[in-house]
Amino acid sequence: MNEFEFIKNIKKKYGLDLVGDDCAVLPKDNENDLLLTADMIVEEIDFKLDWTTPQLLGQRSLAVSLSDIAAMGGDVTWGMLSIGVPEHLWEPRFLDAFYEGWHDLAAMYEVDLVGGDVSRTTNRFVIDSIVGGIVPKGKAILRSGARCGDGVFVSGPLGGAAAGLKLLKEGMRYDPKSSDPQSLMILKQLRPLPQLRLGKQLQEDGLATSMIDLSDGLSSDIAHICRASGTGARIFAEEMPFDADLLEVAGSVDEMLELTLHGGEDFELLFTGNSEKISAAGLSDVFRIGEITDNPGVIEVVRGGTTELLPAKGYRHF
Amino acid sequence: MNEFEFIKNIKKKYGLDLVGDDCAVLPKDNENDLLLTADMIVEEIDFKLDWTTPQLLGQRSLAVSLSDIAAMGGDVTWGMLSIGVPEHLWEPRFLDAFYEGWHDLAAMYEVDLVGGDVSRTTNRFVIDSIVGGIVPKGKAILRSGARCGDGVFVSGPLGGAAAGLKLLKEGMRYDPKSSDPQSLMILKQLRPLPQLRLGKQLQEDGLATSMIDLSDGLSSDIAHICRASGTGARIFAEEMPFDADLLEVAGSVDEMLELTLHGGEDFELLFTGNSEKISAAGLSDVFRIGEITDNPGVIEVVRGGTTELLPAKGYRHF
Questions:
Q1: Neighbouring-strand partners of residue A39
Q2: How do residues B242-298 score in pLDDT, each as one tens digit?
Q3: Contact assessment for residue B120 and residue B86, using Cβ atoms and an 8 Å cutoff
Q4: Domain at B3-136, CATH homologous superfamily
Q5: Which B-chain residues 29-68 have CB contacts (< 8 A) with chain A?
Q6: Using 50, 70 and 90 to split pLDDT, how confident is the model at A22?
Q7: Per CATH, which fold does A143-309 belong to?
Q8: Which one of A16, B26, B238, B244 is most buried, by most CB atoms within 10 A?
Q9: Cα Rg, chain A, nearest whole Å
Q10: What is the percent of chain B where pLDDT is above 70?
Q11: φ and ψ at A200, to 5 degrees?
Q12: Which residues of B touch A28 (CB under 8 A)?
């Protein structure tokens, strides 16, 4: 059992997967439901301190949770931040920059920090990011609403974050002064941008039948939608929107496809819906990459006229 | 700067202490406010695995957060649980027992587990317990409402949890088959019981002007109330309710006082209010231990007719 399976199993077994969605949906008042999400982010598992800056880490901690709210079509309202800090990081410069990053992104989306906790840890920095949002009652976009014939869409070019991760692993580091393709892709890995505006628009206009954010990777995330919806899906490799700079990092189209199909953490939205309506809505940066089929659990990829099964190879951690 | 100061400072500096109370209070609907609390609990900092059982640890993770809801006079509704699990604990027996403990206590208070996250850690078990509750609009009992002349009350005998911690440090271990005083005090440390019923009653009957739960220790927690309320307090040492078995562990009355005044984690409620009204309410297990004064920030302890300053020596971690 690998880590991915382990985590999936315990979430399912112990009820953390109650709704099986990016957020829990609870009744709030007569008009709205409450959306809740928590993301635990651990040093040396989800990030390395020498790969990022404290400020980017603060931003990323909030961004991954905002992305969960976006994936339900919701609006974000408050955040809590629990951190465990090892003694060697008890220095104002580090924590100032970390919270500054969090608050910078929070200000963009009008998120208030309302609480959280602080503990000591023995040696690693640990973050639990908790975000609450709202969505009109009964209108949260779930993973379970995809129907045969729906188109499959993504909200932007893919593969950049995975390519950035590859560069970090190879020893490259983020250079704030550089705007070369490598640095931009590293920044995509270190500072994902949540698609809150688009998620909300899709919800308000009733355009998405199901939605998820691309955290694990397309191949895994489309499988989540198909499992929840009782459908299959067919992805057209030729329609995949590659990150503009991806060819600079990937040596071949095969590798570009590998990064876009299986590399996660782009935090774009993956959604399904009526293809004509979505095309007619004039949404910018939305790409149709496939269609929902009535073949439950079967995810296919079509490339150069041949069809193969697409294994769920996405992952969350490096 | 010690750890206690460090944590206090960063909570204040970065806005985690926004409301400065046990829970954040947010508007929910026309009738109720939403209460939110998060507690991060770290192996080797807040607990040791060989001191407890996975089941007791699961219970305790929820109990400390329920106690925060109790301290606001609220009702609990949902919980989230984020855990970071090192690879050597990826075994169903451990996690089954941990979640069983959580769910046992949750069932007692009708708390639903609605979400959370699971991550890997490098070597230590980390828990972030998040709990949401409700309280009638504007009725949350804050730390800031104490007034000169109010009595100071606690909801039960103190010192048991601190004595249990002392025994654990000395090498004793929890024995579920034993009912001797030592085992009972260790159990008080390992399985605190949140005072939700009493907290809610105090709120409904309008009896408490301020409230906090005893997590840091009486000397620190009364200081929190005085700081928030702009008052002082006078504690009567002779009125302190000692845990029934405390003398078995403490060698002297001095040591018993040390444990009850400064040892934390009893998770009883500390509250203030009109002494006559509270006495007349016939609450069981409620002890009047002092009074609020108009001497801002000055906490005194009266013993044998002499009055001394009471330093805030409480702590949270071992």
A1: A129
A2: 998 898 888 899 999 999 999 989 999 999 999 999 999 999 899 999 999 999 999
A3: yes
A4: PurM-like, N-terminal domain (3.30.1330.10)
A5: 29-30, 34, 36-46
A6: confident
A7: Phosphoribosyl-aminoimidazole Synthetase; Chain A, domain 2 (3.90.650)
A8: A16
A9: 19
A10: 93
A11: -65, -40
A12: 28-29
Burial of A23-38, coded b for 16+ CB within 10 Å and e otherwise, reads bbbbebeeebbbbbbb
Q: pTM for the whole thing? A: 0.94
CB–CB contact A132 B29 (8 Å): no
CA dihedral A11, A16, A17, A22 (to 10 degrees): -110
Q: Pick out chain B residues at pLDDT < 70.
A: 1-7, 10-11, 14-20, 315-318
Tell me which of B130, B215, B216 to substitute to probe the interface with A (most A C-beta atoms closer than 10 Å).
B130
- The answer to whether residue A9 scores a pLDDT higher than 80 is no
Cβ–Cβ gap A126/B82 under 8 Å? no
Distance from CA of B318 to the nearest CA of A (A): 11
| Total beta-carbon pairs less than 8 A apart between chain A and chain B | 185
What does the pLDDT read at residue A213? Answer: 96
State the average pLDDT over residues A39-66. Answer: 96
Whether chain A has a CB inside 8 Å of the CB on B7: the answer is yes
How distant is the Cα of B28 from the closest Cα of chain A, in angstroms? 6
Where in the sequence of chain B do the CATH 3.30.1330.10 domains occur?
3-136
- CB proximity under 8 Å: B 132-161 to A: 132
**Sign of the four-CA dihedral B134, B135, B136, B142:** negative
- For A43, nearest residue in chain B (alpha carbons): B121
pLDDT band (50, 70, 90) for residue A214: very high
Residue type, A293: T
- Among chain A residues, the shortest Cα distance to B81 is held by A16
Cite the residue boundaries of each domain of chain B with CATH code 3.90.650.10: 143-309
For residue range B292-318, list pLDDT tens digits in order: 999 999 999 999 999 999 988 875 443
User: Which residues have CB under 8 Å from B19's CB, separation 6+?
Assistant: A114, A115, B25, B142
